[in-house]
Each structure stands twice: as C-alpha cells, then as structure tokens.
Amino acid sequence: xxxxxxxxxxxxxxxxxxxxxxxxxxxxxxxxxxxxxxxxxxxxxxxxxxxxxxxxxxxxxxxxxxxxxxxxxxxxxxxxxxxxxxxxxxxxxxxxxxxxxxxxxxxxxxxxxxxxxxxxxxxxxxxxxxxxxxxxxxxxxxxxxxxxxxxxxxxxxxxxxxxxxxxxxxxxxxxxxxxxxxxxxxxxxxxxxxxxxxxxxxxxxxxxxxxxxxxxxxxxxxxxxxxxxxxxx
Length: 233
Description:
Order of helices and strands: EEEHHEHEHEHEEE
Shape: globular
Structural class: alpha/beta
Number of helices: 5
Helix content: 25-40%
Radius of gyration: 17 Å
C-alpha cells in the first residue's frame, strides 16, 4: 500500500490524491472549473489512474481550446451534498451517463463531502440517510460501487458517521469508506484509518489528505509509510 501524498504542480489549485479500485496508483482531486491539459500526468514513472472533481461532472475543456481533447484517466463522480442544489445536477449527470465519461472499471461513485462541516456539505445524518436511500443505494443494484460520506477527521466526524449509520437502519451500504485527514502527526493518521476500518470493516480510500494542520498552517516534517491490506490506495 502506498500512503497518498500531497501533489504540488504549477497550476492555480492544490490537487490531492484520491484512490483507485485497480490498486495501481492514486488519482487526482481536481476542481472542475479549472481546466488544463492532463497529459503531464501521464509521463513515464507516474502512477495516477483516476480523478474526481468534487461533483458529478467531468472536466470539460473550453470550447475555444486549441488543445486536442483527451482525458487519460477514468472519472469518479461525486454527489457532494444532500440538498436539491446538489442532488438534481447529480441525477441529470447520471441520466447522461456522466457526459459519457469513462468511469473506473467498478464504476465508483463518491458520497457527500464533509457533511458534518458547516462550510462544506452540512447535512444532518437523517437527511443524508434519506438521500442515500433514495438516490445512491439503488445504484449499487445497477453495478455502481459507492463510497461513504467523507466526514472530517475529528470527533465530530466520527459521531456524524455513527449517527448516519443509525439513521439508515441498515439501508445504507457503502462499499468502501472515503476518509479525509489534515493534521501534523503521522501516528494520528494511522490511528484515524485504523479506527474506521475496525469500526465499519470496509476498505478505505483517503480522498483528501495533507500533512498539515489547516487551523495553524504548519507543514508536517515527518515522512512515513504504512502497510495495511484494507487500504485500497
């Protein structure tokens, strides 16, 4: 298993690695409104094999682009939030087969983005359970593979996830856990992953990761490796 690391590139955004179902390498989290050619990520020695955009739509180039259009990686859609503002565009994208994008071989879809955070999706566990049952859970029977809501890495996230599973009453069945982690201490990251795997007994994707504490903007100086068979990437 390779622990994902923060990627630094000379573009006006900060991508973070996500995971892929082939176990061949990490993917990129890429804001959909920022388009540049992705060919640079296919250079010899790179291991990137998928990308997501925090939404249901793939990267679309400008209509006046002079570049030859090619996305070299499969796309992973996300249902970002629980309200109609996010559910309706997701459903439209689903009906259009996500703009006919190439998806991952197991047709992975990511769930709500930090639903416990007031500046992110901010869904109650009950609302999230309702939307999951109505919108996402049926997709499992259509051949899609679902990632759990991706909560924040603190106690609030742990409690939200527990309350969500309780509200689901057995009707929400993610195929893997999508986790976020921002902190300074490598051991905290390892314990964070271990807690969720031990509690829910599901494979793990780390869909946002940075060795820093965003509250104080201190970079991490420790580098570390980990070995755990249940971490898919």
